[in-house]
Amino acid sequence: MIVVAGVCVRLGIWQLDRLDQRRDFNRRVEAAGANAPAPLDDLVPAASNGVEDGEFRRAVAEGTWDTDREMLVLSKSLVGTPGQHVVTPLLLDDGTAVLVERGFVPVVDPDARVPVRAIAPRGAVTVEGVVHQSQSGGRFLPSSDDAVAAGTIGHLTRIDVPLIDKQLPYDLRPGYLRVEAELAQGAGITPTPLPPPELGDGPHLGYAFQWFSFAVVFVGGWVILARRASRRDHGATAHPDR
Asked: How would you class 104 by CB atoms within 10 Å of its CB: exposed for 0-12, middle for 13-18, buried for 19 or more?
């Protein structure tokens, strides 16, 4: 029981560490969001290897949508509705592109194609979005070059920028832009702009108290059992003929 109680205490401390990490993340997002929007070239230059300095900053980019290579991130939901996120490359003047997570569309097509009403418009556009790091660990379904030759990349499980970059005929900027609801131009547009991340403390403090409570219960249980065993031993010694 003491060993189990020690494990519970360690898990409680781990949850407190997670709480500190969550609060650090919240402070970073809030500090970045307090800055005015900046040109994409200032936050994520073409020659950069990452977006550390520009992460969670609002960036403005001008270009044209590559509507032939729009993608869907599968297994998403919005307010309880299942669907996908639409990701479209934005071609920039220097010949590179940046991926833009444009918003959410509900599942309406069993083949999971981008709905006609959600296809990006033609012509030059100005996009404002929040800079995010590439999501590691994802893969294409499918991921062959035949999909690119056919004019569509297919479906994503995550926005893995280096992997997507290998499938495109132009270079991608590191990271991607996420169009959030407060940055969208106009209401009722499709795809539905995404909500900003929640910046609360999450459940970590409550979980920590639960683990510490479990530790107290196990230690208390051990004390009670030890006392009962001691009383039984004492009673057996005092009355050996019983």
From this structure: buried
| 97, 150 contact by CB (below 8 A) | no
- pTM value is 0.73
DSSP string, 80-104: TEEEEEEEEEEE-TTS-EEEEEEEE
Output the pLDDT for position 45.
83
Specify the length of the chain in residues: 242
Q: How confident is the model at residue 144 (pLDDT cuts 50, 70, 90)?
A: very low
Q: Which of 174, 176, 161, 178 minimizes the C-alpha distance to 45?
A: 174
Read out DSSP for the chain? -HHHHHHHHHHHHHHHHHHHHHHHHHHHHHHHHTSPPEEHHHHS-TT-S--TTTTT-EEEEEEEE-GGG-EEEEEEEETTEEEEEEEEEEE-TTS-EEEEEEEEEE---TT-PPPGGGSPPSSEEEEEEEEEPPPTT--EES--HHHHHTT---EESS--HHHHHHTSSSPEEEEEEE-BGGGSSSSS-SSBPBPPPP-S-TTHHHHHHHHHHHHHHHHHHHHHHHHHHHHHHHHHHH-TT-
